[in-house]
Structure prediction request, 407 residues.
Amino acid sequence: MRRVVITGTGSISALGNSMDELLNSIENRVCGTQQMPEWDKYKGLQSLVGAPVTLPDIKTIPRKMRRSMGRMSLLTVFAANEALKSAKIEHDAITNERYGCVAGSTMGSAEALNDTFETMLPDHDLSLLSSMSFFKCISHTVSMNLAHYLGITGCVMATSAACASSLQAMGTGFELIRYNKQDLVLCGGAEELHPTVTGSFDILFATSTKFNDNPENTPRPFDKNRDGLVCGEGAGILVLEELEHAKKRGAKILAEVVGYNTCGSGSHVSQPDREAMIQCMNSALMDASIKPEKIDFVSAHATATLQGDTEEAAAIFEVFGSKTPVNSLKGYIGHTLGASGAIELAASIEMMNKNTIYPTLNLDDVDDKCSMIYHVKTKLKKDIKFILKNCFAFGGINASIICKKYE
Prediction:
C-alpha cells in the first residue's frame, strides 16, 4: 500500500480566516462564542449563542462560480485556497484525473434551505425559486462547488455524516491514495451557522442554554458545569498526497496519515456508545499497526454534551489509560459539525510539529465522570510523534484517524 502524507492545510472559523489566526487565538485562549441577538425572533429556541465566521470578501470568487454557492460552499473555497497555497499548488495545476476532492457537511446550506421554503410555501409557488437554489441545497453542495471552482476532474465525493463528515472525508481521501485510485485529494468539510441548525440540537436538549449572557464561558468540554454544545461554523481543507508524488514536486510534508477507521454503533440514533468508540479507536490503531502507548496526544471530539463527553472519556481511558494527554478544541471554536474533524485535525498537526498541546478552554473543574483521563489544562510541551483525532456523530457514526510526524 502507498504512503499518504499531508502537504497543505486551510481553515476558516470563528477565530479567523486562516490557520495562523486560528492558532494564534488558541495560543491566547480566545473563545469564539458570541451572543446571537438576531435569533431572538425564533420562538422556542433556548440556545442564543453561536460561533460565527466573519466572511471575507466573496467578490474575490468569480460570480459565475459563486452563484451556485451557499454560505458553507463559500467558506470551503476560502479554506481550500489557503490549503493549496500552503501546499504550494497553483489552481491550474490540479485539473488532472488523478487529483480529486472529498468534502462533506451535515446537509446542504441551511440558509438556502430556509430561504427556499420561506419563498415557496406561502403560495406553494415553485416558480418563485431561483435556478441556483437547488445547487445550494443539495447534500453534496460543498464537494460539487469546490470541484467546479477548481476544475477538478478526478474523483469527487461527498461525505454526509453530521459531525463525522470531514473526518470521513479525510479517511476516504487517505484510502483513495493508499489504494492507487488518486495521487492527490483535497479533503475536509464545512458547516454554516443558522438558527435552524442550533434549533435541531436544541430540540434534542443537546445545546448550551445557561450561558446566553456570558457566551465566552461556553462550551465547556469535560467540565462539571457543561450544559451542551455551541454550534459554530467554518471550513477545513487538507491536501493529501501520495508520498513519492509529494517528494517529487518538493513539497513540505506536514504529517503522514497512518491509520483510519469508521464504524457505526448500531445501538441508538442519538445516544453515544462507548463500546463503539472503543472499537473505532482500536481499529484505527490496528490499521496503523501501532500500540495504544505510541499515541502521544488524543484530540477528542468532546462537544460538551453531558453524555457524549462522559462516554468518550470512558472510551479513551479504556484504550489509552490515564497517561495520554487529551484535549478538545470545541471551547475555542464551538462545534463546527461537518467541518470539525478537518479544522481540529489541521490544528492538531500544527501542535504535533510544535511539540505543544494547547489546553481545553473553559475546563475549570473536571467532571468526576470524566476525570479518569489526562486532561490538558495548561499549555503542555511534549515530544509528539503520533496523534489520534476522534469524531463521533449523531446516528452512531464514529471516525478516528491517526497521523504521524514525518521524519
